[in-house]
Amino acid sequence: MGTDALSTELRALRDIQREILKRPQDLDAVLDLILRRASQLTEFHSGWLLLAEGDNLVIRAATDRRDLGRILDIEDSVSGIAAQEGRILNFGDVDRDARCSRLYKVPAEGRMVSELVIPILDEGKVIGVFNVESRKPDAFTGDDEERLAALADQAAIIIRNARLAKETEALRQIESKILGGDFDMESILDEILATSLELIGSRIGQLLLRDGDDLVVMATTGQEEVGRFRVRVNDSVCGLAVIEKRAINMPDVRVGKFARLYKPVLGGGMRSELAVPLLEEERVFGVLNVESDKVGAFNKHDEDLLTALAGQAAITIRNARLYKEVEALREIGTEILDRVFAVDEVLSLILRRGLDLIGAQFGQVLLTDGDHLVIEATTGQEPRGTRVEIADCVSGLAVLEKRPINAPDIRQGKFARLYKKYLGEEMRSELVVPMIEKNEVIGVINIESREVNAFDRHDEELLMALAGQAAIAIRNAQRYEEVERARHREKLAAIGELYGDLVHRMSNPMGAIRAWIQFIEGERGDLLREDKELGEALEEIKANAEKMMDMIGQLRRDSQEIQVEPVDLKSLLRTALEGIEMPPSVRLIEKVDDLLPLVQANRQMVSLLANLLNNALEAMPTGGTLEVGAEVVNGGKEVQLWVRDTGRGIPDYLQGEIFKPYFSTKKDGGLSHGLGLWWAKLYLEGLGGSIDFQSQSGAGSRFVVKLPVSSS
């Protein structure tokens, strides 16, 4: 190469460098400048500068603008052959070479004779080609090849820098959206995937988020359903990136030690795969995965670029989740602190919300009781009320040390001895946080997973925030229940006083009636003997008066102050059944569970049950079926008892009256004060229970009593 030619080449390269400094991101303008400067180094009549995009070459600069944007198939063009083989091709006459003649693409200026193609390589990877042509045969010499190859090296640097600038700007824009508080995670993840594919020149990819032992597709170029399609962490290339927390670059998915892990989700023709974990402070949120139908499609630069984008995706996910977690904690706080719940309801709610926050499936809430923890809410099969010693379980460590206990593998070390398999044999890791109120541990939230090392520091902090709210809510609920119990006691006492006053008022006139009967019998006995009908009437009055006095006596006993205590409802029901006379025409069916918990009541339940049984028998004067039963309902919080008959039923128009005082359906002259059901309703409500019924005229009635299970 002569001195003048070398000087011209150096000036051309210097001009290009100055132009690049002016507009580093305007790649097309810079490529156009490179092509124009090439014409100063080598004479040609038509020229293209093409960049690789997937399986194609795209004309990004051309001597004739009509060629801009043309797409050449790598498999079906001379430029494509140079790109595939990574070497210079110089044809003195395109028609003399059979392969060249077949693959030749005519430029806008018309068919040429000579063609010189120079691959543009960046770190060994072909990223584009120079293609110059001439109407003269054998137009390009070895010097031309050297000059354009030198320019191609410069072009590679220029393209790399321009792409870096574009990549930096793309990352900046994504970061700006994230920092600007755009928590539309779905759209940002879509944008990250699209940007990734554009920047590395690929067309096929996915973005997957971790969900326990699975990865869920959240953005894709394929046909798999977003939010539903899953792959296993322990059985996929993407999962390997999660486990090893590094990029996995498979030049050929069909060979090598990881070939068995490849899943042809994005198409059966894929040959290479690059999976990069979405990693933020050692926490893996998911995977950014791209694939190609070319072997060895991805290089170290692609890994670095995808790692940067994956980092942005991880920040997006973390911010979106933090936002949702803060909102969730606020909503939970509102839900459990601003409303009054029973303790059981609060505990169930805390467990549900804790599992939702951590994204787990298995857990328990346990409350302290002396030296034990008592299971009060659970996803497992163990019964509520199961007790475990604080000194002999992982949850107990959280109580004793007043701090979270994160057991990465409960089958190893000290945790293996302490772990209790209440949630299943397959559990592997456990996170327990104490619920502390005024420096006192009142219980723990226990979350478990089938996966080893499932919980991190973030999970601990999140669950501790919930535990703080939970402790306050539990104490509030316990205080509320204490107030309710006191209110029930006061209500029962007031009812007793009311009943006592009613008994007193009934006793006076009944005492007068008895006195008059005795006077008539003593002073007018002769009259009664003479008038037999009058004597019989007085005997009936006397008999009914005695019955009424017996009732008043029972009412007086019922009106005494009610002392509530844990009682065996099954035993009380048996006593009530033994105290009634069962007609031979009535068939008794008993459906009482064998293991009923104790309920809050007292011996007066016998009178209440006897009243319900007698009412049922009186509704079946000609016989029928009497069914009595009892079972645990409402998640173990109540016992439900029922009395069902097949008698005459209660007419619709009377069903709204039966719990009112002095109401009675007796039509046969039988004596009834009409206070039994009224008293039953008041008594049961005073205990925190209830009574209800279903009835149909002519088809019988079913009375249902519910009582709270004793907490003692």
What descriptive keywords fit this protein?
single chain; 712 residues; alpha+beta; Beta-Lactamase; 4 domains; six-stranded antiparallel β-sheet; 17 helices; 44% helix; 23% strand; elongated
Summarize the structure.
The protein is of the alpha+beta class.
Your description of this structure?
With 712 residues, the protein is of the alpha+beta class. The chain folds into four domains: 3-168, GAF domain (Beta-Lactamase, 2-Layer Sandwich); 181-326, GAF domain (Beta-Lactamase, 2-Layer Sandwich); 339-561, GAF domain (Beta-Lactamase), CATH 3.30.450; 563-708, Histidine kinase-like ATPase, C-terminal domain (Heat Shock Protein 90), CATH 3.30.565.10. The strands form five sheets. Strands 3-2-1-6-5-4 form a six-stranded antiparallel beta sheet, sandwiched between helices. The protein has a six-stranded antiparallel beta sheet with strand order 9-8-7-12-11-10. Strands 15-14-13-18-17-16 form a six-stranded antiparallel beta sheet, with helices on both faces. Helix 5 packs parallel to helix 8 and helix 8 (300-337) packs parallel to helix 12 (457-523). It is elongated and about 160 Å long.
